[in-house]
Amino acid sequence: MSLYRRKDSSFWWVKLPAIRGESGPLQVSTGTAEKRKAQEFHDRLKAERWEQEKLGAKPRRTWKDAVLKFLEETAHKRTHERDKSILRWLDEHLGGRYLDEIDRATIDHIKATRAKIATQSTANRYLALIRTILRKACHEWEWIERIPKVSLYREKEGRIRSLTPAEFAKLLQHLPPHLADMATFSVATGLRQGNVRGLTWTQINLELRHAWITPEQHKNGRAHAVPLNDMAMAVLQKQIGKHPTHVFSYRGHPIANVSTKAWWKGLELAGIENFRWHDLRHTFATWHRQAGTPTHELQRLGGWKTLSMVERYAHVAPEGLQAAASRLDNVFGYALATPDEKRD
User: Fold this and answer.
1) Cβ neighbours of residue 230 under 8 Å, at least 6 residues apart?
2) What is the mean pLDDT of each run of 10 residues along the chain (344 residues)?
3) Which of 42, 114, 218, 281 is catalytic?
């Protein structure tokens, strides 16, 4: 029989012959213990498979089908494990659905449910992954004809905290040498904590004054070239001979953590509050903008993927637009001048 019960399950199951492109018969649970509903599931599935076989209709794909294909294609991603964690949670809400059954109401329910458990920002990460998979299913794999709109919560701009040159100089006085060197290099290059800790001599060319971060090491997934200024070069010169592979080390070993008691003690002695190691990257960007570095150049120096990430620092350098604003002075002067003054 094509509709049957199994000893190890309370649900009815369906068994249908293989169709073109399949290696064997299809056996699947109906997901219900009611025979009437199971029969409806059976009939609908049988009709769909007949259309696929005889009319060339596209097979209906499930959310699980899409998840498996997505994970296979993105196994190289740095966020692969995080994606799997998110998808495990989503399985409760989407696991038994066909892709064409996922509508706006379903997504809005997931959005509200996740926001109650965690923050809206966290909910956005889950929604963004749903949107990515649905877009692939529609535009790349051509499994479905359309996808519902996935509306994310509006997030506040990221936190920006930086030090003045005087505050940074005071902080360096209260840090142990290895942390002071790493902090200085971070501000000089804008590199993230992990890239500084893991930096090796194979990534440095002292003659060309150049360093590089591979796509696997970089947050945005692209290779990042880092020009080395005098401040960065001075730090590197001090590290030569301390470790055979890693640029920064402590007592002969690569540094595994920078947010140590020594770091927090240094901040306390320097009188600096509400400051994290990552804020050294904000300090790098702030100083550049205050020095007049254009937004597009700062984007490349800091390795930001989008220009909007750099535009967060525009407010710290209003004087950079002074020359542009002053271009209207002549126009205003002409508009307010008397007719005789205009003729002169």
Assistant:
1) none
2) 84 84 78 87 81 68 92 86 94 88 93 90 92 94 89 75 93 96 95 94 95 84 89 96 95 92 95 93 90 87 84 66 62 59 57
3) 281
